[in-house]
Every structure is written in C-alpha cells, then in structure tokens.
Fold this sequence. Notes:
Blueprint: H1 3-13, E1 31-39, E2 42-52, E3 57-68, E4 71-85, E5 88-100, E6 104-111, E7 116-121, E8 124-129, H2 140-149, E9 157-164, E10 167-183, E11 186-195, E12 204-210, E13 216-223, E14 229-239, E15 242-243
Antiparallel strand pairs: 1-2, 1-14, 2-3, 3-4, 4-5, 5-6, 6-7, 7-8, 9-10, 10-11, 11-12, 12-13, 13-14, 14-15
Amino acid sequence: MNNKATAILFSYALSSFASYCYAQNTPLLEYVAQYEASANGLEATATRSLNRTDENSYRLSNSLEASIAGQALANLDQASEFIIDGGRIVPLNYSYQLSGVSRASHTIFFNWDAEVALSTEGDESWQLQLKEGVMDQLSYQVAIRQALMDNTEDETSFSFEIIDGDAIEIQEYRLVGEEITSTPFGELSTLKLEQVREASDERVTEIWLALEWDFLLTRIEQLNSSGLRISLELKSAKLDGNTVRGNN
C-alpha cells in the first residue's frame, strides 16, 4: 500500500471508534488528551478534546497530523457540536476536513424540527430522514460512554445508527472484558470492546476505554482488509482539570 493510501486510512483511525440515544444520568466531564499512532512506517500525533460551550452545549473535536521522515502527509480536523436535551444527546453540526496528500470534506447539519439531516461530501449533498438517536461519526462516541455508564442490565452488545455520507449505517459493538493497559504514565484499568462484523469481513476494530477515568479513550487497534494494522495510543490527558495517572 502506498504512503498516500496509508495516510488516508491513518487519518480515519481516530474516528473509528459507536448510536443510540442513551440517558444522560451522569455529567459530561471536559478533557483534553494527546495520542500517538503508527501505521506502515507513518507516525502521527493527535489531540482529542471535549469542551462545554454553554449550559447544555458541548463540542467534541479531533485533530491529527500524519508524517513520514518528518514530512507532514495528512492533517485531519474533525468536530461535532451537540446539546443535552431532556437527558439525551442531540447532535447539531458535524465537520470533517482532511488535507495534505489527499483532500476530503464532510459536513452534516441536523434540522430536528424538520426531521432532516443535510449531509455534504465535496460537491455532493443528500437529505436524510432523521429519527431519534441518529448521530454523526463523532458525537456517537459520547453515546458509547453513556451506554456503558447506564448499563444496569449487564448488556454485552450495543447497536448504533451513524450518518455516513448518503446513508445511515448501523454499527454494533460488544464487550470483551476488562484488561490492564500500559501507558507512558502507568497502567490503566480498561474495558475492551470490539466492533461486530460479518464473518467474511477481515477487518478488525478493537477499543480500550479507561474505567477509572470516565471511559477515556486509551487505545485503538484497527486491522483493515489488506492487512494494514493501525494503532492509536494515549500519551497524556487531563480530565476535569486533573492529570490522568496510572494505577502504579
């Protein structure tokens, strides 16, 4: 696989992470986290943050820069704005911008009054019928946290509805179990999940979330159909103003 194709896949790794509308029983904590990733000789640094913009409004954002031999190949900026309304996560706007060796863009505007979402990629646009629980490819990551925190019935799998271009796709994740994950600042107790795919699908996506740190994303491992493995690892973070530390 050439560096251009790898850079595109690499930029998607950060957003490969779950969309049903779950009850907001626990408050969202602001955070900022730094990650490092690797794939096929490429290196990347990434930052993910959640900020409260108003009483019930939030902005979740990702930024990533992939490089090889010190030369930048791809830059990704991704953001989702949403509100908490009646205890539920309601996305309002989504943006995705990839630049560098390849360029791509995707925006979504949610019009809940008209029950329509306008999804735009490049020069193409589509109107999609909205129903409660539909989200974009970033705000659903808040829903996975809610699903885990509100999982009083010990469910082992969760289904999610996510807008992807001209369609609304259903993704399913299942709980694998608890694991100890090593980081530069010590070991973290994490919960591991994996995406459920068809038996014939060779792709694998595994996710680790920090149990004692508000289910903060700790690690992603992704294997695509060509055998390329992409990893994303937490290097440092602050959650609700507190520095994330390991158990030891």
